[in-house]
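Budget justification note: compute hours in this period were largely spent on complex prediction jobs such as the one shown. Inputs:
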Amino acid sequence: MSRGNDPVRLIADAGCPESQRALLRLGADIAPPRDAEARVWAALAGALGGAAVAAGAEASTKTTTTAANVKAGLLSMKVVALAAGLTALVALGLTVFAPPKSAAPPAAAPPAPAAATREPEPRPAAPPVEMPAEHAPTSAAPPAQAAAPHRSVSPARRLVEETTLIRDARQALRAGDTGRALRLLAESRRLFPSGVLQQERERLAVEALVKAERRTEASARARAFLRRYPDSPHASEIRALGVGQPESRP
Amino acid sequence: MRAGFNREGADDAVRIDAGVSPMTFEATYRAHFAFVWRSLRRLGIAEDDAGDAAQDVFIIVHRKLPEFAGRSKITTWLYGICFRIASERRRAVPRPQLGEHEAAAFIGRQADPGTIAEHHQGLALLERVLDCLSDEQRAVFCLFELEGMTGEEIAEALEIPLGTAYSRLRLARAAFGAAVSALVGDHEPRAESPGRSRSA
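Corresponding output:
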């Protein structure tokens, strides 16, 4: 057999005994159970949080031994709880997506880029720092420069911060407090411009802007999202909001 | 659509390119979880263990993603990780031997399974037939026959020469045919040799 000269696959080969092909069809159809993706994601956030905290954040403060381990363990549990909550919320958002027009339009909120507006959360000692990331999705209103100091902070700590911000923003949005949701999302964008939850953040921001009747901004942000992530699981939700039809698909 | 040929559509689009399109960990996870899951299952990880194994895979992905330079398709990169994780786990927990009657119970029907019970029975049989292949043959066989990858993609995923990929496929087909034949007693035209060695 030479390069580019693959044989016919058995599954499509009429000369292959049906007993073999029946088994191969089964193998081809293997798929994860319905809840597996969410389950593993929650466990994963916990595992990454625990390991990274133990190895990274605590070392930076020179805290050692038992106290550090206990702290790491607690934080790890917190990450699991947060991740589980977020996953559930994401799942909820995917299945029961509230039509934006049905919500009573709250008072339009200013962009509010201020980081200090953040509600106090149980948070680690060090301020979160995002990796140098110049890839925040483009939009009508570019985010302010990240004000956090350029110091190495563990991925686990960033994940906790980012997850908390997104969770709070989502809760605010569901509670009808669009202004607070937009403030939290702006802060998330400032601190974690290319964080692991940036797609979720952008989707929530589009929804919040639609609810705030800031459709021009919503459209700009939606278009930027769809250009950048045309195949994202969130893309169809954003389109369902009736904004940001992409100019063309590649 | 048959999962074996529904290869992730985002393969070609999702690349790490520092200047253009960074791929987030979550995006990678969402786009490729199903691929990782089925790859692990086909590599011999039991359904009950697949979640833990997938977690192991994505922990490595989380660590290595910044280094993944987009030189290859992300699925070939992910598969390399799946292969290593599956090999480690299989070494730690050897699988039980193939049971003849459960094999015949499924294959005797010679048709797609109609019930969940039959489906599970069939899958268990497939897993055990695949256990007759060496890890390396199994990987090539599954990527080619079930995932629909080309020989070149397989060579890249497993970091082997193309000729090696093809020869492993030949051996794997022979072993697969022989194993099914032994179970159901048909005559397999393609069974050239037993090929049951388990060269790890």
